[in-house]
Amino acid sequence: MKVFGPDLSKLVKFLTYGVYRPGIQMRRNSWQDGVLGTNCPIQPKKNFTYQFQVKDQIGSFFYFPPLNFQRESGGFGAIIINNRNVIAIPFALPDGDIVILIGDWYTQNHTALRTILDSGEELGMPDGVLINGKGPYQYNTTLVPAGIEYETINVDPAIHFFRSKTYRFRVHNVGISTSLNFRIQGHKLLLVETEGHYTTQQNFTSFDIHVGQSCSFLVTMDQNATTDYYIVASARFVNESVWERVTGVAILHYSNSKGPVTGPLPLPPSDIYNQWSAMNQPRSIRQNTTASGARLNPQGSFHYGSINVTGTYVLRSLPPVMIDGKLRATLNGISFVNPDTPIRLADMHNVKGAYKLDFPNKPLDRTPHKDRSVVNATYKGCIEIILQNNDTRMQSFHMDGYAFFVVGMDFGQWTESSRNNYNKWDAISRCTTEVYPGGWAAVFVSLDNVGVWNLRMENFDRWYLGQETYMRIINPEENGDTEMAPPENIIYCGPFRACRRNQKALLQWHWSVRLPTRRLYLHDYLNFLAQQLFNLPSQVLQE
């Protein structure tokens, strides 16, 4: 595994934060997931070492701080997991790997953006798009002032006269809320992978990458090598005349280039007012069923379409509304509030009322409200999740701990008859899918990863406003094989904040008794701590 990005130690001096890695499945180990429902945040001037395996995974991913809009201020970087040497990749070995991080950008910092949302307003149009953390090349003297630092990607055009070099571009949308169209002037993008799964290979002149998504393209340096070329990431599905400034521009520089790039940017897709046409692109992404990923057996050997579906969840998202005087976003009418104690930690210590296992499996006709409702899922079940976007803007849906099969996508309201058009053979498997406004997407998930896993809208403003929940998947016959024990360096918070200095002894005791065989109420537990860990009389904590 290779990691490309900033030194996160710079964050610990000032921020309460965590680190999340979308697409890395943390098999049997939701203790390391990094979001508030599974981990207490890392406190300022403290550190935490995440320990996890990337077993049975390959591909292109990234990491970022998930709390309080911190991703807007940076702290993100790329993760590359390569195939083992004994497993061939389904294309010729590229001549190099190039990481491209694209994302919308606001001049205001993450605390100011939170203040905007907390005041009941929406964020509005971003101030630009960054490519690898840098501003746009001055392609237009009116829109782009001089002196802005921009990204340059250096490449070699050819190995010899008969063969041009081919590079693997790993592109990640690390932004806050804006879908972006990615393109390289004069070059074709051969899609080969999305978030850890190889795709059937097809060429695109441009490609839509939505918030939180990752894609790999093979790009051959077969153009006139005496000039440079534009690399562009521009806002998608917006009024382009108004959003013209929301464009990131980098330079593709051939090693024997004789001069800078000139002329206008390559045009974006012309289907802005024809989203039916735009949806054909994600619908065309199919899994390469004969390629091998992390294992020798082909990706298509898992016949998801023949598995019995044990449950269906219809998750409906709506535009934000005012709840208790604050702007909030909902799924099925519930705006999620993170518990004081992370869910699995609350399980381990039998904290009563930390959350509720009552998330509805379909929208209910009731007043939107805030709650701590969690999905109570069945281990080894296979569920169908319908993502109904009744909002007015494009959304990205993400699930931690899993990759799901995107079996269907369309406009209008999903109905049971929509299943007739599902792709049950070669649907792409990924962890983040787009859901068009006024449309739906359907995914299948095989629940074989024990733990507590976040379901959310990846658009940060909606996520911050409560458009998320968690799925609790517990093996009732747990013997240590399907879920790892909590790490010795686990962070405590909420009612257990005072237990940090004795956490090792605390963990040893609790993991030895196993939750199904012993139940403690919170006051019993605190009395035990007083006697066993702090050498205090139990009555000290009675008050």
UniProtKB/TrEMBL annotation:
What residues form the membrane-spanning segments?
Answer: none
Pfam families named in the record: Cu-oxidase, Cu-oxidase_2, Cu-oxidase_3
For this UniProt entry, the molecular function terms from Gene Ontology, in alphabetical order, are:
copper ion binding; oxidoreductase activity
Q: Give the domain of life.
A: Eukaryota
Tell me the ranges covered by the Plastocyanin-like domain, including all copies.
Answer: 23-85, 97-257, 341-477
GO CC entries: plasma membrane
Sorted keywords for this record are: Glycoprotein
Name the protein family: Belongs to the multicopper oxidase family.
The protein, known as: Plastocyanin-like domain-containing protein
